[in-house]
Design a protein that fits this description.
The structure holds three protein chains of three kinds. By secondary structure, chain A is an alpha+beta fold. Chain A has helices at about 1-20, 55-65, 115-125, 130-135, 145, 165-170, 185-190, 195-200, 245-255, 265-275, 305-310, 315-320, 350-360, 380-395, 405-415, 430-440, 455, 465-475, 480-495, and strands at about 35-40, 70, 75-80, 85-90, 95-100, 150, 155-160, 210-215, 220-225, 240-245, 260, 280-295, 330, 370-375, 395-405, 420-425, 500-510, 515, 520, 525, 530-534. Chain C is mostly helical.
């Protein structure tokens, strides 16, 4: 019977081919290669003038050196990156940068003042999302040429066209938009006056410790060591970020040694990893806040008493000690704990009696109905459900709607939400980054469309708070400036339509032969160049 | 197939004799006879009976949910989270300390709600399009069948996904989306059946008596399509449950805290390694229930469709 | 497939013209064109009424008003809907599927990259389904009513009833997590990535052609689990259908005659009955293959398999409509194509269907 014979043969052959070999699957990554399991679905561009998402921010931090930087060796001190030193003029308006000599781009081209000038101007010309970090200094694509100039082969002068302080400007230049790109290489790929935008989205032209080898969307990012980096060649010849969306799969990969690190494990999985041989868990405090925002154009939620009641109807500790444990701690001000000028005071606790009393005072003792919008990824559905349960105990009935960011944000930006549970990471390490977003709403009209600012999105029209934010940004005296931010955060806690709940910490599971992974507070303070393997 | 053994008719009651008479006196009697014989054949089919038993249990459990459970399956006790199955919680607790047994029981209502609603939408739509196309023929047929083909060619889950993302997630929208992807085979079946009976004598007779097209379709064509449609529906039930679970898994079905089984698997999947019961119990529930519908459908087909299952 | 058969005969009879030859040649073309039109139109409309905002997918949630508006106009969203659809169709007809937001590359390039992954998976799964399902079905039919028949039936129903994504998770846990027999998610161990040139995009073929046998083996290992999961469904369907086709044949008179004549049962089963079933089986296998090619979104998600299903789904969540329409059209055309081919084979092989 030819058919049966052929079938048996094929099945037998398949079994022979797979089984014996499969039984001996190897489990170690090469010694000069760092393999990280991470969800990279947020990565949609690697052009430093456009990057604003978390994974992209991390990747470009390792490809590009920036004008100003926090170096991997010391994340607390702002120093010159591409520039060797800088000088602030007496009136604080002009900063003169001296480019560090002897640096070269991945292409081999030397790093010059012209590249710095081009990189900063390019951010303005392209005017992509993160451009707002620089536009606040009074620059735009038409006037930037007169404010940012290469005045010598290695000298760049930057003129501040706003009242904001020079310190803030220096901090802003340490953001992704401060990345220095290789002008010659980028411009050789320019098309239709796009300043190389289409090309740089998925290529690299920097002077940082790594260069981009490949990026396959939702598959992997592969980086290659830059042998000529100013700090010397990194120990890892290759760094791979492999897209593994399932946290459970990430955990298996790191447990088996198929990955050196798992970056998106949930607290419960970290707990399960305890005692796994060869795996160590590191904790790094992060500047990401989890908060909920109510809408001030909502008839009931706009009542300050109702908002105050909501603050007491959150089981902060219950959540932080159960499904959030280890990865989120309670922190109720908008500037993350551990950073300069953060208010370390958590005035609100889970107190249903107080919440009920406040609702009754507001004339809402009978309860009402709202919707809770949030993201689909953990821990947001869990937080929303916990909130839903505690709200139901004070008579507020709620319906949860889960959505991906691309569906959720349009609603928030159009002021169509009622209560939204969301997260926020600062764009650069200065309290103004968050204050500008949460506590600054210069024009509350619907037509104003300040859609980038949560303060506008919640229709929060508080002139005093807005004025305080502006004043703090202009203050030159650091001691005074800090006091102003503390005051601002305290007022914010009492009045804002935002209830800051948690601050995150990243728990990274790594193989114990890997060390030197630098995981700073902000998403773009993650560095691979000190990683070594034994 | 039902094998009539002579012994079974040895002690005939009058009703039985009436039901088994070889010369039925009326249409009514003939119909009752057919039903009786089918039911008997059905009850001798162990597979079908197993399916029926599962479905009946599901209905029973869903109906008695308030009596069987201790809450509505949504109340959280954070300090009792992720408890293993035991005396206090038969199926353990989930990541928010909710009793999984309670959630499964209440979830059965959601499953029934979904399949019922989909069936209620899909069968009339499929029958209408199929019988109209088959009966009228010509351009009407061509147009309706091309539309059906387009829906058949569409990747099913992707169409459902796209539809739900357009309407927004939620149970009702998931039902609509599933219906949208499920109706086309029913139209095909109804059309095929209609084609085979379109020129039958009794329809010809009705037409010559001046019956309207609508009347003929409703009274003469549709009833004859029903048995194959019902078989197909029962077999599709499992598919509907699985699609609904798939949508739930992707976060587009029932929204929390509703205990939809697919969503429960999705929420619980990160606990598979250490707390296996969290995603496993709803998985098994889906498996059992869709298995039940499949067994039932398989048995029904044996009984109702003498060609036994081609198509 | 009873409906398919009667559709062919009934359809031809109901239309007095055009002549038969004309219909035979042009109907497939007509079907493909129509399906294509329908698919693009539906996906396009869905894309435009979706609450997910393609502009925000590009500019992110913190974009200021002017950044947002510039991109809005750049995407052509300010034009009327019909105009947008017309522009899109014109572009597609000249081979331009547009750019994907998510991958920043041409959708066509993406499809060339993602589709082979699905093709590889679906092909292996279908083959497994055939090689196991067909013998199972025959065995069941020959032993109708005996325990082996019931066993096959229950296995078949199991394959129909199990939530694939759940089964995938559980097998991943057992065979990778606990036993360590099979590799984890992905198409290759990550350090093998990029060694083989993607000539066809099907790693097994590429590796074999370039003589990279270690990579071939690795890719094969990675395929085993997801392919088996998908094969459960294929196998269930194929075994079930084989059984009922075979039963039909075994009850026919010629089989009885052949038996009476003294032919060995095996010869009767394989040389006569099975040969006649083959034609119907082709249709069934075609259908199975097509439905697996649709991309099993969920299996691909669980196994981090960069296939077309995952591509379309992620694009959908990111409001990346160029990618969604492109992917859907490719899958739809494949579906129609496979159906046409199996229809053709059917007619060739079975004189009654001509």
């Amino acid at each position: 019977m030819p058919m049966i014979r052929r079938t048996l043969l094929a099945v037998g052959l398949a079994l022979c081919l797979t089984l014996p070999n499969a039984l001996s699957s190897r489990a170690e990554t090469p010694p000069d290669m760092l393999v990280m399991a991470k969800s990279i679905s947020d990565l949609i561009t690697l052009d430093p003038a456009e990057v604003f998402e978390l994974t992209g921010g991390e990747v470009i931090a390792n490809i590009y050196d920036r004008v100003m930087m926090f170096e991997a060796e010391d994340l607390t001190t702002l120093v010159g990156g591409v520039v060797e030193n800088y000088e602030v003029s007496g009136d604080g308006k002009t900063i003169t940068f001296e480019v560090r000599p002897g640096q070269s781009f991945h292409s081999g081209n030397p790093v010059t003042a012209e590249d710095v000038e081009f990189s900063l101007r390019r951010v303005m010309y392209l005017n992509k999302t993160p451009a707002f970090i620089l536009t606040q200094f009074g620059w735009n694509k038409d006037n930037v040429d007169q404010f940012i100039k290469a005045t010598g082969p290695m000298t760049v002068t930057v003129e501040n066209n706003s009242d904001f302080s020079a310190g803030l400007l220096l901090n802003a230049l340490s953001a992704g938009v401060g990345s220095v790109v290789d002008k010659k290489t980028v411009m050789s790929h320019a098309k239709d006056g796009d300043f190389g935008y289409e090309w740089l989205k998925n290529h690299s032209a920097g002077s940082g410790p790594f260069s981009l080898k490949t990026w396959k969307a939702n598959e992997l990012v592969s980086l290659e060591a830059n042998e000529n980096h100013r700090h010397g060649k990194p120990a890892m010849r290759r760094v791979l970020l492999r897209h593994v969306p399932e946290p459970a799969a990430q955990r298996l990969l790191v447990e088996k040694g198929d990955a050196d690190m798992a970056r998106n494990l949930t607290p419960d999985q970290i707990k399960g990893l305890k005692g796994a041989p060869g795996v160590v868990v590191d904790v790094a405090a992060k500047a990401e806040s989890v908060y909920f925002a109510t809408n001030n154009s909502h008839p009931v939620l706009s009542d300050p008493k109702v908002r105050m009641a909501l603050r007491y109807a959150v089981d902060y500790d219950g959540m932080a000690n159960s499904f959030l444990s280890g990865q989120y701690k309670v922190h109720q001000s908008f500037w993350p704990s551990g950073l300069w000028a953060s208010l370390e005071k958590n005035p609100f606790s889970y107190d249903l009696g107080k919440a009920k009393a406040l609702l009754a005072e507001a004339g809402q003792g009978g309860g009402f109905k709202i919707t809770i919008d949030t993201l689909t990824t953990p821990p947001f559905p869990e937080i929303a459900q916990s909130l839903q349960q505690s709200l139901s105990k004070i008579g507020i009935e709620s319906e949860i709607i889960l959505a991906e960011g691309k569906t959720l944000w349009p609603k928030y930006r159009a002021r169509k939400h009622e209560l939204i549970v969301a997260r926020w990471s600062p764009d650069y390490v200065d309290p103004h980054s968050n204050a500008d977003a949460f506590a600054h709403n210069p024009d509350n009209r619907l037509e104003a469309k300040l859609t980038g600012k949560p303060a506008w999105r919640t229709a929060w029209d508080d002139k005093e708070i807005t004025a305080l934010t502006e004043a703090a940004a202009k203050e030159l005296d650091l001691v005074k400036r800090k006091a102003m931010y503390l005051d601002l955060q305290a007022k914010f806690q009492q009045r804002a339509p935002f209830n800051m709940m948690f601050q995150s910490a990243e728990q990274v599971a790594r193989r114990d032969n890997v060390s030197g992974f630098v995981n700073g507070a902000n998403f773009d303070l993650v560095f691979y160049r000190l990683v070594t393997k034994q | 197939m039902a094998e009539m053994s002579p012994q079974e008719t040895a002690t005939p009651s009058r009703a039985r004799a009436w039901l088994l008479s070889s010369a039925p006196q009326s249409v009514m009697q003939a119909r009752c006879q057919r039903l009786y014989l089918s039911a008997r054949a059905f009850s001798h089919n162990p597979i079908a009976m197993a399916g029926l038993l599962i479905i009946l249990t599901l209905l029973f459990v869903a109906a008695l949910a308030p009596l069987i459970t201790s809450g509505d399956g949504t109340s959280q006790v954070l300090r009792d989270r992720l408890l293993p199955p035991g005396a206090a919680h038969w199926f353990g607790t989930d990541q928010l300390g909710r009793d999984i047994f309670d959630r499964i029981i209440w979830g059965s209502r959601i499953t029934l709600y979904i399949v019922t609603l989909v069936a209620v939408i899909v069968v009339p739509v499929g029958l209408l399009i199929g019988t109209v196309a088959g009966y009228l023929g010509g351009w009407v047929d061509a147009i309706l069948m091309r539309i059906t083909d387009i829906f058949l060619a569409f990747p099913r889950l992707i169409l459902a996904l796209a539809f739900v993302s357009a309407l927004g997630p939620g149970l009702e929208n998931a039902v609509l989306a599933i219906a949208l992807t499920t109706w086309s085979p029913f139209a095909r079946i109804a059309r095929a059946e209609t084609l085979t009976i379109r020129n039958a004598e009794h329809i010809f007779a009705a037409r010559s008596q001046g019956a309207s097209t609508a009347r003929i379709l409703l009274h003469h064509v549709t009833p004859l399509c029903l048995s194959s449609v019902i078989v197909r529906l029962t077999l599709d039930m499992a598919g509907i449950i699985l699609t609904a679970a798939g949508l739930g898994f992707l976060g587009l079905g029932a929204q929390p805290p509703l205990p939809e089984w697919g969503a429960m698997i999705s929420d619980g999947r990160q606990y598979l390694l250490d707390q296996w019961w969290v995603p496993t119990v709803p998985g098994v529930a889906i498996l059992i229930v869709s298995m039940g519908f499949n067994l039932l459908g398989d048995g029904l087909r044996d009984v109702l469709d003498p060609r036994s299952g081609v198509g | 497939m009873a409906d398919r058969q009667s559709e062919e005969t009934g359809g031809a009879a109901s239309r007095p013209f055009p002549p038969a030859i004309f219909t035979k040649i042009f109907r497939p073309v007509f079907t493909v064109v129509l399906t294509f039109r329908g698919l693009t139109a539906i996906t396009f409309i869905i894309g435009r009424v979706m609450p997910a905002d393609p502009v925000l997918a590009i500019v992110g949630d913190r974009a200021s008003r002017d950044v947002y508006e510039a991109t809005y106009i750049q995407l052509g969203l300010d034009k009327p809907l019909l105009e947008q659809y017309r522009i899109y169709l014109t572009n597609v007809l000249s081979g331009e599927f547009g750019k994907s937001i998510m991958t920043t590359r041409d959708v066509l390039d993406d499809l060339i990259r993602f589709f082979p992954a699905t093709l590889e998976l679906a092909t292996v799964a279908t083959l497994a389904g055939i090689f196991i399902g067909v013998p199972m079905g025959v065995l069941a039919a020959v032993n109708q009513g005996r325990w082996i028949d019931h066993l096959v039936r229950v296995i078949g129903l199991f394959g129909y009833s199990v939530p694939i994504f759940w089964l995938g998770m559980v097998t991943l846990l057992i065979f990778y997590g606990w036993l360590g027999w099979l590799p984890g998610p992905g198409r290759l161990d990550v350090f093998y990535d990029g060694i083989v040139e993607p000539d066809t995009g099907i790693i097994l073929l590429d590796a074999a052609m370039q003589g990279e046998w270690e990579i071939f083996r690795n890719a094969l290992h990675h395929l085993v689990m997801p392919a088996s999961i998908l094969a459960t469904f294929a196998l269930a369907y194929i075994a079930r259908m084989t059984r009922s086709f075979m039963l039909d044949q075994l009850n026919q008179e010629y089989v009885l005659t052949a038996r009476v004549k003294g032919l060995s049962p095996l010869a009767v089963i394989w040389r006569h009955a099975f040969r006649n079933v083959l034609v119907q089986l082709i249709t069934i296998i075609g259908l199975t293959y097509a439905s697996l090619l649709e991309g099993s979104v969920l299996t691909e998600t669980i196994f981090a398999w960069p296939g077309i299903g995952q591509y379309i789904t992620t694009s959908l969540f990111n409001a990346d409509m160029n990618a969604v329409i492109g992917g859907t059209v490719v899958v739809g055309i494949c579906f129609v194509g496979i159906n046409l081919i199996s229809d053709g084979l059917y007619r060739l092989a079975d004189p009654r269907a001509r």
